[in-house]
Design goal:
mainly beta, 10-stranded mixed sheet, 200 residues, 1 helix, 7-stranded parallel sheet
Length: 200
């Protein structure tokens, strides 16, 4: 375990946590997961079997990465983000294994795109997120979606490329474009786009 890890964090014996990674109190790193140097895993996070967290990635507290999720360098996840199984956050729009002369590429040859995910957002199984996008708080990304552009807060997006198909509440309930409240939990959150439209 990393010397920067909290003594309250749990790391399964088969997991690899590199020196310089930081684990918050109560974090759990499960079977065969890999956490690279300078990654920052927040308090009470769960990193599932076979998941990969690249160097420099920031993951806010209370987030969950399900089995085999891949979060590459350049990604920042907010608090309470859910990342489903086999979700991939990419970080280069023009990846190559070698230069045109077949010379090996170095760290300086990559054009890393930054991806920022707001608090409470969720990503369904097998979703893919291209670099350089932002995903708003409490947004919901459908299973197998291909996210190629920014996603507004509270938007439900699906498809390839992903498009907004509805709004959701912070509780996850799907809402129509004319909703005035959430049928499950009552009022819409104060910052919800549908509340803004009601006030016009």
């Amino acid at each position: 375990m990393s010397d920067a890890g909290s003594p309250d964090a749990y790391v399964h014996p088969s997991a690899l946590v590199e020196d310089g990674a930081r684990l918050g109190p109560g974090a759990k790193i499960w079977h065969h997961a890999q956490i690279r140097r300078d990654a920052d895993i927040g308090a009470r996070c769960i990193v599932g079997k076979g998941a990969f967290v690249d160097f420099g990635v920031r993951i806010g507290p209370d987030s969950k990465l399900q089995n085999y999720a891949c979060v590459y360098h350049g990604v920042t996840l907010g608090r309470g983000v859910f990342v489903g199984p086999h979700v991939v956050f990419t970080n280069d729009k023009r990846p190559r294994a070698v230069a045109p002369d077949f010379g090996l590429l170095g760290d300086g040859d990559w054009d890393v795109g930054e991806t920022v995910v707001g608090d409470g957002a969720s990503f369904g199984a097998n979703a893919t997120v291209l670099p350089g996008v932002s995903v708003g708080a409490w947004a919901m990304i459908g299973a197998a979606a291909l996210v190629t552009r920014d996603v507004p807060a509270y938007a439900l997006v699906a498809g390839a490329p992903a498009r907004r198909i509805a709004w959701v509440c912070a509780c996850g309930t799907r809402l129509g474009d004319d909703a005035t409240s959430c049928p499950r939990c009552g009022e819409l959150p104060a910052d919800h786009p549908l509340r803004e439209s009601l006030q016009r």
